[in-house]
Amino acid sequence: MRTEIRLSGRGGQGLILAGIVLAEACGVYEEKEVVQTQSYGPEARGGASRAEVVISDQKIRYPRAYDPDILVALSQPAFDRFAPQMKKEGLIFADESNVHTDRKDVILIPFSDTARTEIGREVVANIVMLGALSATTRIVELQSLKQAVQHRMRKVFHEMNLAALDAGFKLGTRIWKKRSC
Amino acid sequence: MRTEIRLSGRGGQGLILAGIVLAEACGVYEEKEVVQTQSYGPEARGGASRAEVVISDQKIRYPRAYDPDILVALSQPAFDRFAPQMKKEGLIFADESNVHTDRKDVILIPFSDTARTEIGREVVANIVMLGALSATTRIVELQSLKQAVQHRMRKVFHEMNLAALDAGFKLGTRIWKKRSC
Question: Could you tell me what percent of chain B has a pLDDT over 70?
Fold first, then answer.
């Protein structure tokens, strides 16, 4: 069982941090094998930034996400670049206010709106997104994300980011239910 | 031309952050191909934490450091675990106060002592280490590290970390000269 996740957006949206928190949540608190990667090169300098997480119950031989199961896109350029590469059965989550698309299979979620209105800081949209991922997929438990946030971030940021995880989890649950009806 | 670097130590020594800063310095400000990786698994839970950076002038097919050219060890368990895996011509840098060894080929550098005495915060030993790496190896320019620190960290931390880079660079230059005489 191997799951590949690609988190994408623009620089400054905290995708590397989100990748690290997700990897630590699964790898340290859920005892899976996890590799987390970021790549820099001519592509990365084009504007679309990404972090990748590969989760497995076995030793990971190839650590890059070459055929992602889950794509998150927080910006239009990242969506435009990575969404077409996704396999048919892959899940695509995109930020509702930053990404515009006609594709019906894309799950639009107001990550940044929720971060702004519920937490008061759009900068935690990345953490709201992780909470939502936990609710909509089975890749990680909310509790493990909370432990990773507390371990990875300085104390002064705990309250805000734990609230962001909770807000994202609720958001994900709500949207998932709506889609399933 | 491919260079593999393994940064190792214990949790809390900021090795992932150091890996990201180094990767961004080379990949964004020096336009090389770079992949930065952290792995979590039964091994990682054993206590020795690590971040890996692979730098190349060509597309990187295999992103893990399977045969590192450079090892940095900031803790004894990390040194004991990773130093024996190094090839003969590899460079090993270890923290002078945290690592004890009889091996003459290991380059002991007071990263944490310098961080504590010159910057007043041992927590920036990881950044002192990057400055020293820039002085002792040709993998990255000090200026690129400074740009990456400024881009990657919040403004309130810039002054301290830029000073840590400078202190590390001076330290590396001094030690390198001493060894070369």
Answer: 96
- Confidence at residue A40, expressed as pLDDT on a 0 to 100 scale: 84
- Structure-token match 């003459």, residue found: B104
Residue A118 CA to residue A122 CA, distance in Å, equals 9
Q: Do B27 and A20 touch (CB under 8 A)?
A: no
- Nearest CA of chain B to the CA of A174: how many Å? 31
User: Looking at the DSSP assignment, which residues form a beta bridge with residue B49?
Assistant: B9
Q: In chain B, whose CA is at the least distance from the CA of A152?
A: B12
| Degrees, nearest 5: CA angle A7-B48-B157 | 60
Predicted confidence (pLDDT) at residue A108 exceeds the cutoff of 90? yes
What is the Cα–Cα distance from A95 to A107, expressed in whole angstroms?
A: 9
Residues of A in contact with B41 (CB under 8 A): 27, 32-34, 59-60
DSSP helix/strand/coil, A52: strand
Smallest CA–CA distance, residue B29 to chain A, in Å, is 10
Q: What mean pLDDT comes out for the span A106-130?
A: 97
Instruction: Select the residue from B34, B35, B40 to test the A interface by mutation, using most A Cβ atoms within 10 A.
Output: B40
- The string of DSSP codes covering A78-118 is HHHHHGGGS-TT-EEEEETTT-----TTEEEE-HHHHIIII
pLDDT value of position A178: 80
Domains in chain A with CATH codes: 2-180 (3.40.920.10)
Question: For residue A128, what are the CA distances in angstroms to A8, A15, A132, A164, B139?
Answer: 14, 12, 6, 5, 37
Q: Which positions 94-123 of A are in contact with B (Cβ < 8 Å)?
A: none
Residues of chain B with pLDDT under 50: none
Q: Say what the pLDDT of residue B84 is.
A: 95
Question: Does residue A58 sit in helix, strand or coil?
Answer: coil
Angle at CA of residue A59, ends A54 and A63, nearest 5°: 35
> What is the C-alpha R_g of chain A?
15
Structure tokens at A92: 């695509």
- Which CA distances in Å does B16 have to A36, A71, A119, B9, B49? 11, 23, 27, 10, 9
